[in-house]
Amino acid sequence: MEYKIALLSGDGIGPEVAKQAVNVLESVGKAFGHTFTFEEGLVGAIAIDKTGNPLPDETIKICLRGDAVLFGAIGDPKYDTNPDAKVRPEQGLLKLRKSLGLYTNVRPVKAYPTLLDKSPLKRNRIEGADMLIYRELTGGIYFGEKHLSEDGKQASDLCSYSEEEISRIARMAFEAAKLRRKKVTLVDKANVLETSRLWRRVVTKIAKEEYPQIELDFLFVDNAAMQMILDPRQFDVILTENMFGDIISDEASVIGGSIGLLASASVGDEHGLFEPIHGSYPQAKGKNIANPIASILSAALLLDYLGLNEEGNAVREAVDIALANGVVTSDLDEHSTYGTKAVGDYISVLIQSAE
Amino acid sequence: MEYKIALLSGDGIGPEVAKQAVNVLESVGKAFGHTFTFEEGLVGAIAIDKTGNPLPDETIKICLRGDAVLFGAIGDPKYDTNPDAKVRPEQGLLKLRKSLGLYTNVRPVKAYPTLLDKSPLKRNRIEGADMLIYRELTGGIYFGEKHLSEDGKQASDLCSYSEEEISRIARMAFEAAKLRRKKVTLVDKANVLETSRLWRRVVTKIAKEEYPQIELDFLFVDNAAMQMILDPRQFDVILTENMFGDIISDEASVIGGSIGLLASASVGDEHGLFEPIHGSYPQAKGKNIANPIASILSAALLLDYLGLNEEGNAVREAVDIALANGVVTSDLDEHSTYGTKAVGDYISVLIQSAE
Ligand SMILES: [Mg+2]
Ligand SMILES: [Mg+2]
């Protein structure tokens, strides 16, 4: 098959790590008989520098006509530290998510055997943990009506959800659970919030009527924040609303021991965007020291999204082997001499030789 | 001095652990020359059984005329597992907080040297952690207007705060920081929420004008959920709104290794209520195995509240010694033969002999 990928490398280490993800996709193409073509678009600080706009219209067009978007990272200190900056690199990503209708964020969290010593949690708590977090991305209190009284002494934020917003992400989470350990945990606060009670009703109905083979359980968000530390292995697929997902997925991101391994997908009904969760890390730019694995794993999520699950698994297996063999950048092993490119090359070669 | 304490022991292990807290207060009385008198009130399941009401008016009166409320625990499986129960034990506590105007919840979290091996976090992360969490208890989204559309397909919850609600708890947190490491961390989501921006403005103004000696810093709640695991030692006093406080304080509760040691205070302008954070643990009732330390430490918070800081510290020091010497119940050491009463007696004797 032939696939057209929109490549938005962005700022800082974005281009370096995205380049390794591109290499990996090209290796997958050779090994499995697909063709990936890449069309590059500007986004972030580099787009502001060149066009004045963190998300030029041309970039949106490139994304809309691609089969998927591979995203690097954005952000530059010259905008971040300037409180008067009128346009900010991050606005590019927010606007892009909106333009593409990306309402679900997916974050895999996995404890890699060779990295257990890097986790802040004890080995016996984390060994074997492997979860997917489905976070609603365009609703809830972050996007609700805001109000500040004229005298500035009273403020409010509205959290609201509709059945439609809940059911579309819920089905995605149940579909993912089908391919895994067949368990979905809904995180909410249904003992106090009306929106949480709506989530519980809608999700329970979908589970009963459409996914009887999937186990559905419920956790209040405060308890979930505890359980994530006490026993992260209990989770298979977590499903939750926007703000709870923000908190729980960031909490989960540190238990595996390295943020340099974490990828994410933002998907909607017609488009999908795949990126590492780490930032643009400008201090490391151009030094060939950035860890490319999160970007490479985001390419694996992109393959899953295209329906190429076998191919996605091949990428993940190659990453597992690189980690097991210590072919990693110095953030994971201070004695390592492998650079960004060497790690990417090793994984690419593994994928081609596996077939 | 003479102090009148309202004693609400409640259900399950509540009476057993509260009894040890009473013993400890009586020892403090002897050692420091105070008199504590206790007036008992019904609350929870036992109050429903005897009066039909989880919080009888007589109990409220007892609390209102006391100098402070010492609370045990509430909850009974015969109500918890019955979805048709019209009155529930927990309603007693919620109503009591409201009746007494308790708008601030305080939770100390400390890593005890002898319990580091019980923590899910690695020793080097947690050693020396010692924080106080100030959570706003009567405002925010838990108490805001709720709405469900007639067709049941759309729901909302309103989060709102006023300057007054923020400033009264902020001053309490700054006062606490004065007696500690002089640092307050405000946890919010000011990059997205209007209410969080109001919190930031109000707290910043109070810090500048009234507490120039206190360092104030800010963390977004998602980052705070990460930092609590990565580096809990960075926190001295955490100040936050109701829901963020619920999540962050429950997350923090598991890092010390035992929920059986955690006490909490709920305070307002005129009243204070002090309780362990653990529940009524009905399975352990009457077996002399419940850990009384959380209840004893809640008595220490009660002493602080009465302005008896030296006395509160004496209780905490005695608890430290009991833990260091292994005088603990079997939840903390499976080989221990000390029961609830033996641990309470040991701590009481220490307090009297220290003077
Ligand atoms: Mg976040
Ligand atoms: Mg809670």
Order of helix and strand elements from N to C terminus of chain A: EHEHHEHHEHEEEHEHEHEHEEHHH
Count of individual beta strands of chain A: 12
List segments of chain A where confidence is low: pLDDT < 50 over at least 5 consecutive residues.
Answer: none
Distance between the termini of chain A: 17 Å
Q: Tell me, what's the shape of chain A?
A: globular
Strand content bin of chain A: 15-25%
Structural class of chain A: alpha/beta
> Average pLDDT across residues of chain A?
95
Which pair of protein chains has the largest interface, and what are the residue counts? A-B, 49 and 50 residues
Strand order of the largest sheet of chain A: 2-1-3-12-11-4-5-10-8-9
- CATH architecture term of the largest domain in chain A: 3-Layer(aba) Sandwich
Descriptors:
homodimer; 355 residues; alpha/beta; Isopropylmalate Dehydrogenase; two-stranded antiparallel sheet; 13 helices; binds magnesium ion
Question: What's the helix and strand layout?
Answer:
2 copies of one chain form a homodimer.
Chain A (H helix, E strand, L loop, with lengths): L1 E9 L3 H19 L2 E6 L4 H7 L5 H9 L2 E6 L3 H4 L8 H11 L4 E7 L12 H4 L3 E7 L9 E3 L5 E9 H16 L4 E6 L5 H17 L4 E6 H10 L6 E4 L1 H12 L9 E5 L4 E5 L16 H13 L3 H16 L15 H15 L1
What is this entry, summarized?
The structure is a homodimer of 355-residue chains. With 355 residues, chain A is of the alpha/beta class.
Describe the protein's architecture and organization.
The structure is a homodimer of 355-residue chains. By secondary structure, chain A is an alpha/beta fold. Chain A has 2 domains: 1-103 and 268-355, Isopropylmalate Dehydrogenase (3-Layer(aba) Sandwich); 111-258, Isopropylmalate Dehydrogenase (3-Layer(aba) Sandwich). Chain A is built from 13 helices and 12 strands. The first copy, chain A, has helices at residues 14-32, 45-51, 57-65, 77-80, 89-99, 123-126, 163-178, 194-210, 221-230, 242-253, 293-305, 309-324, 340-354; strands at 2-10, 35-40, 68-73, 104-110, 130-136, 146-148, 154-162, 183-188, 215-220, 237-240, 263-267, 272-276. A 10-stranded mixed beta sheet of chain A has the order 2-1-3-12-11-4-5-10-8-9, with helices on both faces. Chain A has a two-stranded antiparallel ribbon with strand order 6-7. In chain A, β6 and β7 form a beta hairpin. Chain A starts with a strand and ends with a helix. The relative contact order of chain A is 0.17. The model of chain A has no long low-confidence stretch (mean pLDDT 95). β7 (154-162) of chain A pairs antiparallel with β7 of chain B, so a sheet runs across the interface. The complex binds magnesium ion (MG) (2 copies).
